[in-house]
Amino acid sequence: MNTYDYVIVGAGSAGCVLAARLSENPDVRVALIEAGGPDTAQEIHVPAAFGTLFKSQVDWDLDTEPEPGLDGRRAYLPRGRVFGGSSSMNAMIYMRGNPADYDGWAAAGATGWSYDEVLPYFRRSEDNERGEDAFHGVGGPLRVSEGRSRHPLAAAFVESAVRVGHKRNDDFNGETQLGVGTYQLTQRDGMRCSTAVAWLHPALSRDNLTVLPATRAHRVLIAGGRATGVEVERGGAVELVRAEREVILSAGVYESPKLLMLSGVGSAAALAPFGIDVVADLPVGRGLQDHYMALLNFRTHVESLLSAAAPENAALLQGEGRGPLTSNIGEAGGFFRSREDVALPDGQLHMAPVLFHQEGLGPVAEHGFALGPCVLAPTSRGQVTLRSPRPDAAPRILHNYLTTAEDRDCLVEGVRIALDITAQAPLADMITGQFDVPESDSAPDVLAWARRSGMTLFHPTSTCAIGSVVDPELRVLGVEGLRVVDASVFPTVPRGNTNAPTIMAAEKAADLIKETVR
Fold first, then answer.
1. Is 151 annotated in the active site?
2. Which of 51, 61, 69, 150 has a CA positioned 20 to 30 A from the CA of residue 399?
3. Is 228 helix (H, G, I), strand (E, B) or coil?
4. What is the C-alpha to C-alpha distance for residues 216 and 32, in angstroms, rounded to an integer?
5. Which of 390, 411, 412, 304 is closest to 351 using CA atoms?
6. To which H or E segment does residue 431 belong?
7. Residues 344-364: b if buried by 16+ CB within 10 A, e if exposed
8. Is the peptide bond prior to 426 cis by the omega test (within 30 degrees of 0)?
9. Sign of CA dihedral 176, 178, 181, 183
10. Which residues touch 113 (CB under 8 Å, ≥6 apart)?
11. Phi-psi region of 184 (alpha: psi -120 to 50; beta: other; left: phi over 0)
């Protein structure tokens, strides 16, 4: 049995940040538990190769229950099971969300989480190659760069979108979100800059940081209303990892609530069928949110990323840190309002200069591109529940995608906006045929197609939300010495990609944790 000051479960986007920040104090002993292993696979670091990681050994490879809003289809949910977590297999888009998201959190009771209060943590984490200004920081661990692929199909999308009336936006993390443009990326010299690369690797040489790879957390040990450690399985043996100060769950939006429930923290009604004694009766796992996306796929005569792996492109990547292999796939996009009476963006577009279909698992044998919207401010709510009392059993996940009229209407309008853009030159002149699109732009046809062809945008949140499961300092209600620090604590899903907000939350949590021992 090993004892530490802090035991962190999950070496993902939040866990890597926490481990590095907490171990900055040489007098503090930190253990970082990770079910996966080191991020050594080449495909992790070559940006354009991230799709090859789906359903591999570094993927939790989860699925939803049959989704009622998708005609009973199960949706595939890739999540990183490796150092860096999903930041080691995502599309690397650096996006913070809308300032109103955070102001809304604060207004609803998440004290300390307004935009003005979280902006310093975004800026602290960031090393933006554009330099420092009111919105951006330099000198932080996370390199934020311009895309170095600059594919002509992505450029054509931006130009076509501008011609149909969308404003060009060079900084979605600046004064306004609305408009179209290319995305900034978490890359350094054209290679992926995950939280493992940015935070964990530089900290691994510290004597006070112990990383336990290939170690599966079973449950949090709670005695007398206080978390005292974590039961884990490593090398086929069950061990106890003790925490003298705190246990911190950073296992992700699906796994963190599962671990809480296995530990007796959850609703009594949900735990009763599994014979789990209730330690704290909380609505763990409820309020699940995500961005549902539907990508139109078109054939094109323009060379796409299908040929990105050519030897000359590998040489460009290795020698100059540029070229097609640096592509994050979703190179360009933008934000829109689906209706005139919507005050804030409720949809986001992503444009990939390659075919991307069947939830990113479909074969790519011809040149094409994908373009489509997501529902950015969903009103659909799902939940995570236990499937079994066994810790190695995947949880039951139900997102309830497209189960509200608001979400369906938003997606239909978003698809129409995308179709308008593809009908405008120069993008229209590059299209040679349809690959996977709805039969028409009528609402019934769009929805029938979206239920069949849509997918997660990999942005689940809110299963251990501030106000219902944790307090604004991310402490689990009713249990001492236990926090949750990952995207599950978000009261609502931000309007944008969620990796940067998850990093921000970990940066803020590190300060909150340090303040408790001063």
1. no
2. 51
3. strand
4. 11
5. 304
6. strand 431-436
7. bbbbbbbbbbbbbbebbeeee
8. yes
9. positive
10. 102, 105, 106, 466, 472, 508
11. beta
For helices 13-22 and 499-515, angle between their N-to-C axes, nearest 10 degrees: 30
Token code pair at residue 61: 């490879």
Task: Give the pLDDT of residue 518.
Answer: 58
Q: Which two tokens stand for residue 217?
A: 């957390």
Distances (CA, A) of 245 to 21, 93, 226: 16, 35, 10
Which pLDDT does position 517 carry in this prediction? Answer: 67
Please give the Cα distance from 381 to 384 (Å, whole number): 11
Look at residue 495 and give its three-state secondary structure: coil
Q: What's the confidence (pLDDT) of residue 95?
A: 98
> How many Cα atoms are found within 13 Å in the side-chain-facing hemisphere of 166?
28
Nearest to 458 by CA among 50, 52, 76, 74: 76
- The rounded distance, in Å, linking the Cα atoms of 361 and 342 is 34
pLDDT along the chain (518 residues), means of 10: 93 98 97 98 97 97 98 98 98 97 98 98 97 96 96 98 97 96 98 98 98 98 97 96 98 98 97 96 98 98 95 94 96 96 96 97 97 98 97 97 98 98 98 98 98 98 98 98 98 98 98 85
Q: Which of 48, 72, 135, 60 is nearest to 352 (CA)?
A: 48
CA-to-CA separations, 240 to 161, 229, 233, 237, in angstroms, rounded: 56, 7, 9, 10
> Which stretches does DSSP call E strand in 39-140?
62-63, 76-77, 126-128
Q: What is the pTM of this model?
A: 0.97
Q: How far apart are the first and last CA of the chain?
A: 28
Rounded to whole angstroms, the Cα distance separating 87 from 185 reads: 11
Q: What is the DSSP letter of 148?
A: S
Largest Cα–Cα distance in the chain? 68
Nearest residue to 222 via CA among 270, 266, 285, 274: 266
Query: How is residue 219 written in tokens?
Result: 């449950």
- For residue 288, the number of C-alpha atoms closer than 13 Å in the C-beta half-sphere is 25
Calpha distance 490→502 (Å, rounded): 9
Chain position carrying tokens 């035991």 = 7
Phi/psi for 392 (5° steps) reads -90, 5
Using alpha carbons, select from 360, 12, 25, 426 the residue that is nearest to residue 203. 25
Q: Catalytic one among 45, 151, 350, 459?
A: 459
**Residue at token pair 């609402």:** 443
